[in-house]
């Protein structure tokens, strides 16, 4: 029943759900495109040797980590805010007989679902962007750009899936536990934020 | 059914200082008892009720339902009691905004039966007791609406219906008539009396004097203490 509730909550709050998924989608596409570009760039740089290329490689990595950090922060803050907004509904679930564990799993499940939809959308966006880009590049024979191998593609996709699912779900882990475990009466007393 | 508390206490900390919102409360209810608790704002009524409903843990003492101490029960067992045996009407109406009034009212029942929320349930599909309840409360025309479109009083009545949907043995209601006009308040009290006569224990917090007249027993709360009201007090209302 929990999964159906997750799905229903998603569909019955379409605006909120889609907004959150879109955020994840944007991050997913950014990570994918960023991942492919930095791989191409690294390949290109490998062909030039010397200190300069080492520094450039490092710059690529630093920028990459920076984007990762920003996406983590964006997901955590938005997801936590959304859950906080709904905490009285979770308290109501406890009143009518949900166990603590079930409430926690529901919060986690909702976050995971929003993230999964977002990742799927993100893959769609970035594939479209990538093919447009590829066609444009191939039409210009002078441009030297090395595309990543297939396994590198697969690895990047896998990384983005695992990374975002983990971040999306774990971002609400603490608040999910907090809501499930705190006294319902305390949540009922809280002012609306 | 017997429901009791002894030496129930709830301690809070405010600006670093401990104080007892509920102090050594003693009390019991049998099936069919209609119990009314009154008292000034902030004296601890809601805190007491939330412990009775298994929604807050006492700092000491225990709530006992048919020999089972809430403190000894697992979360699973206590949740099941909240679902099946206790109906709770919170002081401030609380609903799932994404469900219609009817879906909200039926939610505890779906949960009990292990079903997900069914859409497109119509009034005529419900069992006759429930239909009667919704009609008696005067909300049978509002069932397809979303909670956001109801008035405070209408929500309060829907909240009572939801608390009663699983035929609980105990109804715990925190100022259930606070948003109702006199006519509707009377209607709710009449319903509660009727429920008590069929064996439901009613434990109600209110500022409404009409409720005292219907009560089998009543208590007054003063700064966390629950004091039985003498029958002679009724004359001075
Ligand atoms: N979580 C908490 N932390 C600190 N103080 C609390 C907490 N919950 C309740 N209190 C305090 O305990 C006292 C009793 O609160 P409670 O809500 O039980 O009063 P009440 O009798 O229901 O009042 P009202 O008639 O206004 O609903 C109040 O002084 C309140 O401020
Ligand atoms: Mg109160």
Could you explain how this protein is built, in words?
The complex is a heterodimer of chains A (193) and B (237). Chain A has 193 residues and is mainly α. Chain A has one domain. Helices cover 85% and strands 0% of the residues of chain A. Chain B has 237 residues and is an alpha/beta fold. Chain B has a single domain (2-236), classed as P-loop containing nucleotide triphosphate hydrolases (Rossmann fold). Chain B is 31% helix and 27% strand. A 6-stranded mixed β-sheet of chain B has the order 6-7-8-3-9-10, with helices on both faces. Chain B has a 4-stranded antiparallel β-sheet with strand order 2-1-4-5. Chains A and B meet through helix 1, helix 4 and helix 8 of A and helix 1, helix 2 and helix 3 of B. The structure holds adenosine-5'-triphosphate and magnesium ion (MG). Adenosine-5'-triphosphate is lined by residues 12, 14, 21, 39, 41-47, 91 of chain B.
Q: Mean pLDDT of chain B, as a whole number?
A: 94
Can you tell me the number of structural domains of chain B?
1
Helix tally of chain A? 8
Under CATH, the topology of chain B can be stated as Rossmann fold
Helix content of chain B: 25-40%
Return the string of H and E elements of chain B: EEEHEEHEHHHEHEHEE
Rg of chain A, please?
21 Å
The domain count of chain A comes to: 1
Mean pLDDT of chain A: 87
Broad structural category of chain B: alpha/beta
Distance between the termini of chain B: 31 Å
